[in-house]
Amino acid sequence: MAQPVIRLWPMLRVPAGMLAVLLYAGSLSAADTYVLEEPSTDTRVRLVQTEVNTQGKVKVSVGGGRSASHELDAAAAFRFLERRLPPGGRDAEALRAIRQFEQGTMQTTVAENSSGTQLPAANSLVVSSGRREGVLNYCPEAALTRDSLDLLELPGDTLALVALLPPGPVEVGGSWAVADWAAQMLATIEAVESAEMKCTLASVSGNVAKIDVAGEVVGQRLGANSTVKVTGQLTYDLQQKFIARGSLEYKIESGIGTITPGIDATVNANIERSLSPSAGRLTDAVAEAIPLEPPAGALELVFAAAPWGMSLRHDREWYVFQALLHGSNKVLILRRMERGSLIAQCNCSPVPTVKPGQQTPADQFEADIQRSLGERFGEIRARERVPTDDGRMITRVIVGGSVELKGDKGAVDIPMMWIYYLVTDPNGRQMSFVFSVEPDLHEQLGDRDVAMVKSVRFVQPQ
C-alpha cells in the first residue's frame, strides 16, 4: 500500500516523533476485505420476489429459406419461499433448494396474440437443483407440464446468483472470474463454445455490498446457435450474509431451431430477497425428506388434452411443438431432442369412438395408414398387439418407406420409419399415435414410444 500523503497546515503541526508513528502505522494498514458467501448450511427460509420483463422479436421459418419476425412482449411474476438443501455434488450440483411458490405467472404477447401461463397450486412445492445448463426443477407431489417447467426457468435464478459470489475474501474494486459452469448455469446454455464472465465488488457502504456482473456465453440451446450477454448488479447484505437483491439484463440472440423460434430480445430480471418470518411448508421434516437425486418418475412431464378427455406422460426430451385441441384437424405434435439433435416426431390425435369392448378393425386401421402416407408408403414391416393389464387395447403397426426432400441441388429420398399405435379404452374411446423416425435413429428412440402410448389415460372431456 502506498504511503499516505500528509499535508500539514501551519496551525496543525504534528511533532516529528508522532508523525513517524503515524507513517509507520500507515505502512501496516491494508484494504478491508469482505467474505461474500451463502453456504448450504444456512437453512434460513427466504422470501423471494422476482419480476421479469421481455421485449424483442421472435423469428419463425416461413419456408423457402425465408423467415418472418414478430414483436414479443412478456411479463412474469414470481413469489416463493426458499430453503437451501444439502449439496448433491460439486460445482453446480452443490446448489440445491426447496421452494414453496405462492405465485408464478407469465403473460406473453406475440404479434398481438396473447396467452397466459400460471403455475398450478398442485405444483407449488418445487425442488430445484443446479446443473451446468441451468436449474433442474421438479415437483415431488404432482407431475409438471411442459408449460409449467418452462415457467419455472427463472432468469436470475437465486441458485445461479449464489454461484456468482467470490471464492474467497475480496476488497472493494477487486474482481474475480466467474467459473465456466456458473456462467453457463446463469445463461442456461446447454452446449458452450465460449463463456466469459466477471464480477467486481463495486462498493461497500455500511452493511451493503454492491457486485457488478458482466459477461457473455456463446453456444447452443435446444440445437439452436445462441448468444447470451448478461450485465447487472447484485446487492449483498453483509449483516444477514445473503444476496438481498439482483438486477440483471439479458441480451439474447438465438437462431431458429427445430423446436423453437429464433429470439432477439432483452430480458430484465429484478429479484428481491428477505428473511421470511414463517417457514411455511419448508420445515425440517419436509427438507429432510427430499432425496439427493430425483425419485424414479419425478422428472416425467404430463400433457392433459382436456377437450379430448385424454392425458399422457413423457420424459423431458419430448417437447410440445404444436397443440391444436379444437377444430376439425385436432393434433398434438411432440418432437424429441437429444443433445441438440432431432431424434423423432410424434403426432397424436383422437379418432372416432367404437362400441365398448371393440376396436377399429386392423384392416381398416392399416388402410387408413396407407392412405395418409400416400407415395411415402413402402411396406408394413410388423403388426402386433401391445399387452396391457387394464383392459385397454393397443395395436402397433410399423411401416417402412421414404420421404423426398427437395433442395437447390435436386431431390433426395430419405428412408423413414413410421410406428403407428391405436389405443382403445374399454368404453370404446380411441387415440392414434404415429412416431416418425429415421431407421438409423430407431435404436436411439428405444422403447420411449411405447412408454408414452402406455401412459395414456382417458378421462371425462372438459
List segments where confidence is low: pLDDT < 50 over at least 5 consecutive residues: 1-29
In total, the number of strands is: 24
CATH architectural type of the largest domain: Roll
| Helical coverage, percent range | 10-25%
What is the CATH third-level topology name of the largest domain? Answer: Lipovitellin-phosvitin complex, beta-sheet shell regions
The major beta sheet can be summarized as: 12 strands, antiparallel
Distance between the termini: 74 Å
CATH class category label of the largest domain: Mainly Beta
The Rg value, from CA coordinates, equals: 28 Å
The helix/strand class is: mainly beta
C-alpha geometry: globular
* Tally of DSSP helical segments: 8
Give the DSSP E fraction (strand runs of 2 or more residues): over 45%
Summed over residues and divided by their number, the pLDDT gives a mean of: 92
Number of domains: 2
Organism: Maioricimonas rarisocia
Keywords: Signal
Protein name: SLA1 homology domain-containing protein
